[in-house]
Design brief:
CATH topology: Rossmann fold
CATH superfamily: P-loop containing nucleotide triphosphate hydrolases
Strand content: 5-15%
Structural class: alpha+beta
Mean pLDDT: 92
CATH architecture: 3-Layer(aba) Sandwich
Number of strands: 6
Order of helices and strands: EEHEEHEHHHEH
Radius of gyration: 19 Å
Bound molecules: adenosine-5'-triphosphate, magnesium ion
Number of helices: 6
Length: 186
């Protein structure tokens, strides 16, 4: 449930409204399975993914990863997951692709040698090898989205969440991404 303040003119008191975004959802996802969430705009998909990835605390209910309560133990979850979103936020525009990946990879405490290998591997998956040393602000929208994907793959996480990951991608790389997700799941 979200609490949102609705503004009423300059002097009016803010009207506090409660909004139920996700209600009574129960899902179990097995390792190696791909599960999709479909729904209209505003149905609660992003909210659900944010709760599953510890970015939002649910008002009530239980969320477990490997039977560990991740509302209590966020760190457990964060070591096991990654999230790939659509859009241009969440990466550093003043850095190059390689620098972004090195930064995010180092947050997962991957050793430098292994990280170098992973960076090359993910650059290949998203087809950005040639642009890897150009600052991200010079990228096209689709290239920034490819970087989002690379960032999400860098820690080789056990569980991957996606929220509109193909936003702005051309059909070639969108298809490749779907194939890659299939491969990861297998
Ligand atoms: N920060 C917030 N504060 C208040 N209400 C919110 C907030 N974020 C989302 N909501 C509301 O929660 C509901 C679910 O939103 P959510 O973003 O989860 O939908 P969605 O299924 O991802 O939609 P879309 O397909 O447009 O991405 C909507 O009614 C939305 O207005
Ligand atoms: Mg959404």
């Amino acid at each position: 449930m979200y609490t949102a303040k609705a503004k009423k003119g300059i002097f009016g008191r803010a009207d506090i409204r409660k909004k139920v975004a996700v209600d009574d959802i129960s899902i179990e996802i097995k390792k190696g399975h791909i599960t999709g969430l479909l729904g209209l705009n505003g149905a609660g998909k992003t909210t659900t993914i944010k709760m599953l990835t510890t970015l939002l605390a649910p008002t009530s209910g239980i969320i477990e990863i490997d039977y560990v309560d991740i509302i209590k133990d966020k760190l457990y979850a964060r070591n096991k997951i990654n999230l790939i979103m659509g859009g241009e936020r969440g990466v550093y525009w003043r850095l190059t692709e390689r620098e972004n990946l090195r930064y995010f990879g180092s947050l997962y405490k991957i050793n430098p040698k292994e990280l170098d290998r992973r960076i090359e591997e993910t650059l290949e998956v998203v087809g950005l090898q040639k642009a890897a040393d150009i600052v991200v602000e010079k990228y096209s929208k689709g290239m920034k989205q490819r970087l989002q994907i690379a960032r999400g793959l860098i820690n080789n996480s056990e569980y991957l969440f996606f929220d509109e990951p193909t936003l702005g991608l051309d059909i070639v790389i969108a298809k490749e991404l779907r194939n890659h997700i299939r491969k990861l799941a297998d």
